[in-house]
Amino acid sequence: MASAAEQLASSVNFGAFNKATELKKRIWFTLLALIVYRLGTYIPLPGIDPVVLQDIFRRNAGGILGMFDMVAGGALSRMTIFALNIMPYISASIIMQLMTAVSPQLEALKKEGETGRKKINQYTRYGTVVITALQAYGIAVGLEGMTSSAGSAVIDPGLFFRFTTVVTLVGGTLFLMWLGEQITARGVGNGISLIIFSGIVANLPGALAGTLELGRTGALSTLFIVFLLAMAVGVIFFIIFVERAQRRIVIQYPKRQTGNKMYGGESSHLPLKVNTAGVIPPIFASSLLLMPITVLGFSAGQGPEWLTDVTAYLGRGQPLYLAIYISLIVFFAFFYTAVVFNPAETADNLKKYGGFVPGIRPGKNTADYLDRVLTRLTVVGAAYLAAVCLLPEILISRFSVPFYFGGTSLLIVVTVTMDTVAQVQSHLLAHQYEGLIKKTKLRGRRG
Q1: Nearest-angstrom CA–CA distance, 43 and 56
Q2: pLDDT digits 0-9 by tens, 253-274
Q3: Quick count: other Cβ atoms within 10 Å of Cβ 159?
Q4: What pTM, to 2 d.p., does this model score?
Q5: Structural domain boundaries of the chain?
Q6: How far is CA 435 from the centre of its chain?
């Protein structure tokens, strides 16, 4: 006979979704918020000549700015109010997490609970304003020097243009930061990830059309395009397989006698994901790389010669760029895993409730064992993330294909989709439990 949990899970169907009014409100709110975001990616900055800008970006579509444009959902190539997207906020979050790990004051603030968390979020917002202002000023200066055969990208360069650009881009990023928080609180969750997800998905049809156009013109063979699509499907299945992979550590609870009854003695398991950090390392790595490279890309050819050399070395597919990118992914895989899972704290909690790992002494020995297992899993997870994120770089540098079929974009899309589906299922299960409790109360009153 199926367990109560299995019966409950099997009853989560379309009918249950129709009855879950709270969940439907959350989904509609999320959709409307994402529509607002997509509309904002078409509102241009004041003082920009869109024709000249499109011509400039068409010549640099395969570079690092093209990757930033993918994450921004095309907002950068159109130079809109959301051109910097949510990346400055992610950069500020990275800096705050790093500082929390090294600063005793911030670490103590983090342990204060809700009050400390609000204070850290406030510092993160301040950092977002500073980072966005610096990037926006760099973009404004770079835009003033960008020209094509059709003329200058900026209609009326000067101090006023720089000021309006900084104010507009800072306002756009802060609005997206607020919008992401609203989606997390009032929508289906994962607000920041969903904003990045919607930007990538919005560009996928154009990437597919661009690939087919390359096949029509003979730049890519039909066989290679079929192989490319098959590889994309294979990468999706590989990502799903690894993201669901777990190492289950058996946890045993001792028996205890209360009166004439015996309690406990059951065994459970502690699931440790192979990729505990999820999609965070590639996003963090891209954010830190894009922060200086965006300014370098816009100012290339205008500053000193060494600046042009640095820009060339950090170009898409260059060894220095790949080395820094992979190093950052590996670093953040270990760093974020250490942030979200504390072996010592987990071992203390197990000891407090009487749980233990068979063959391992409770306390420090259990913490060391969990740390050793988690480190080995993170090595595998970091290697998986590095391999998946290297794929688009190889495709671009060797075959000049749109990078939307690459591992980084697919990793974000697949992972965010899985997380969102899990959030929806949890809301449905909560609704089912509420319904069962109400029915039980009604039967009890009738009885």
Answers
A1: 19
A2: 776 656 666 555 677 888 889 9
A3: 8
A4: 0.77
A5: 4-446
A6: 34
